[in-house]
Amino acid sequence: MRLHRFHVAYLDKAASPSSSPPSISQSLSSSAIPLALQYLRPLAPKISFPDARKMVVFPEFARVRNASRLLNCTVQVPTGGTTRWNPSPDQIKVLEMLYRGGMRTPNSFQIEQITEELGKYGRIEGKNVFYWFQNHKARERQKQKRAALLTLSTTSCLPPAETKDGVEKEEACEDALSRKRRCRTWGDVHGDAATTTTAEVVADCTDDDVTLELFPLRPDQGKAN
Amino acid sequence: MRLHRFHVAYLDKAASPSSSPPSISQSLSSSAIPLALQYLRPLAPKISFPDARKMVVFPEFARVRNASRLLNCTVQVPTGGTTRWNPSPDQIKVLEMLYRGGMRTPNSFQIEQITEELGKYGRIEGKNVFYWFQNHKARERQKQKRAALLTLSTTSCLPPAETKDGVEKEEACEDALSRKRRCRTWGDVHGDAATTTTAEVVADCTDDDVTLELFPLRPDQGKAN
DNA sequence: GCAAATTAATGATTTATTCAAG
DNA sequence: CTTGAATAAATCATTAATTTGC
Hints:
The structure is a homodimer. Chain A has four helices and no strands. By secondary structure, chain A is mostly helical.
């Protein structure tokens, strides 16, 4: 197994031309916060993931380039050791069910819920859920498209009036769903320290047409519709 | 100079079919949480139909679509009353300075800091900062591109070996910056309730070449304007 | 001068691409 | 080669400028 470095982007930075990275020295914190020191490892060792790698990863990028420049590179290392989320079969099962049920772009609240639910089957974060839907939606769509094309080329040059049935149907559905724009939410995204007081989120109503039972897998099963 | 209009696309949108918002009812919360009641207004304040333009602004949106569908619409209304962020001149000044300094894709920590700083000049959230950079970067880029094209067409068909100086320079810089992929962070994005314990963020080193003084505007005593 | 009507800017979301882990 | 992660491009929606008829 080849070990991967993270994005060690900052390594090649040395050669960076940067017309004139003029000054240097201090940065953000000048007037901002004493945050200087906190940015080491986040802690929370949480070992033992499904495939708990070895704690490899982090010795590498823990180094801070230059203590004085707080702004750049405040790296928070994934404490556990794993890099990317590796969904368990159960998690995938649930996600796919939700997808089949019609969910496409869950809002932050939904994501929260789903994450919490899926957390029972293994480590998972909100962003994983978010990305999963993004990717799945996109890739299903492109799969459809490919299939459609293939069908077309297969059937030679038939008048395109025929509904290709299988594919087309899903396509249509998907399309209807994604046509209308929906609003998402940042929720506490990127947590803004200062002015959270004012406005909250704006949330949304993601899929009005979705009606599946959210976690039918759960034994709890109190509520149906 | 010819002025171009943008997309007035939304005018014809009234005819939107919206095939069939079929079923309805239940959703997520089945086994999840009792969050039942908090979800008031479904959509963002201000009716947002395209043609609702002439209507009064806001009395409308208070209506709740359907009390039983918990999943959709967990809205927390912007308490202030306004919908979208409207940057103050000072905020813009700072943001542009950062941008000119080379910042392009601030990581969550940076965003936090910037937000905090800018919070002194008015209401602002992390996402606003995030979006600002996204948009500004994109639009600067497209401005450059347009300018470049214009330059080309203006100079007729000169051998493209000439460095167009002004434009090109910026372009090159921008390009260099954006070429290498950088990693962002979700931070607590979309807040995942359940398993936040584990891994934190992954952060990154956005602009390695950037070294500008972060908030020179208010070194502590006098602010710019 | 002034609102209504347009148009231009730009904040906010979604979709398409790209990168890289496994 | 599949797919999680991240960024860029495209799009939508709302607000500010600006124009226009009075």
